[in-house]
Amino acid sequence: MSEINWMDEVLKRKDSFLKDLQGLLQIKSVLDEEHAQADAPLGQGVRDALQYMLGLGEKDGFRTKNVGNLAGHLEMGAGKELLGILGHVDVVPEGDGWSVDPYNAVIKDGKIYARGSSDDKGPTVAAYYGMKIVNELGLPLGKRVRLIIGTDEESDWRGVAHYFQEEEMPSTGFVPDADFPVIYAEKGIADFDIVQPPRLEQSNVALVLLSFQSGRRYNMVPDFAKVHVKLWDEAAGLIQKYQDFLKGSELDGDVSVNEDELVLTLAGVSAHGAEPRNGKNAGIFMSQFLQTLNLDASGKKFIDSIAQFYNRSRGETFAISYRDEDSGDLTINVGIMNYSTEMGGRIGLNMRYPVTFDIEAGKAKIQAELAENGLQLENFSDSKPTYVKKDDPLIQTLQKVYEEQTGDKAELLAIGGGTYARALDHGVAFGALFPGREDVMHQKDEYAIVEDLLRATAIYAQAIYELAKAD
To answer: What stretch of H or E contains 386?
Structure first.
């Protein structure tokens, strides 16, 4: 056990910790390429959040560097080896239905509510304060320690990709963007689109699907869906039918008639795409209702393509169900659904596959299944699994620190989420969600428990010291 009482050191800095965290959370750092500029390639909010963290580092005496306004770092210590800690300051869109302002960072009942409070601004600031404590205590280090700030983790990872083109790869490291105790394995992640070409001819039916929209990101369970259907007959019966569907499914939504169009909306429950079962996919539920209608052939084909994923998130749709002992089930999230009569249909999927899964064979099966149904596979991207052996010194050190700080057994975990650990040659995800706590990442009213963030800061401070201390 370290002679330093790390938690006491954290509590001495509690007020400044919360002030600095609130300042970061109040920046709306959602990807905004529409308003990108040369000095803000991912949008002004994302750039402001990066600059905020670099500003904290400068104020506290760290060596800082902005790497192309796509990433940056704060560094302390000296030595040939580099310990890297990777966090990110971008957040997913706030979504709908919040009971508080998602960018006010209000603290109530021991929780701080804001988009990014748990993913990943809260944990990143906890890691920063861990560095700050080690630095302010003047502890002897035998390595350099670098907190690397990413800005595009929630979409295409352009931040860390650019960073590691320009900067050195750490010798080892960890990522405060998942669960405690220690995550030694992460599933592979593949995003891809199912594409249905447009068919402009309309069959002789009462209803034509004009548009269907649900979802913003591959890695989020959509919480809202909106549909326009062209009417040839009276809508009264359809309105009642939809209202009955909502009631029977215990879902909220609305239905209205705009001239000769029926407009349907449905509210689902958002969740992280790593586990689709944690949410209620608004687009999939909407497809369940639309399947009961006599739609045009093109619209029906699109709806059937979505509906086949109802209660089937384990690869059953493509006959690629798979699991292994280390990393669990293959999962598929239907994250984006768009259709119009002019453009056809596009369904964006997010697949998380176990570390032993043959992704090339799986991709071939998906392509064959789609081809049989006149559909195409496009925009396939693949982030390979990451895995560090259980007896690795990094794993053992982090287990030791966690057990000393919590008194609990540091069980090793495998997850479906994708963290910056896979951007490292040698690294793992380490916190900051404690066992038994509710996972509210990517959900409305996202929060972090203040006590947990402070406890994580103590863990990170000791971990940084143990991993970087002089021999």
So the answer is: strand 386-387
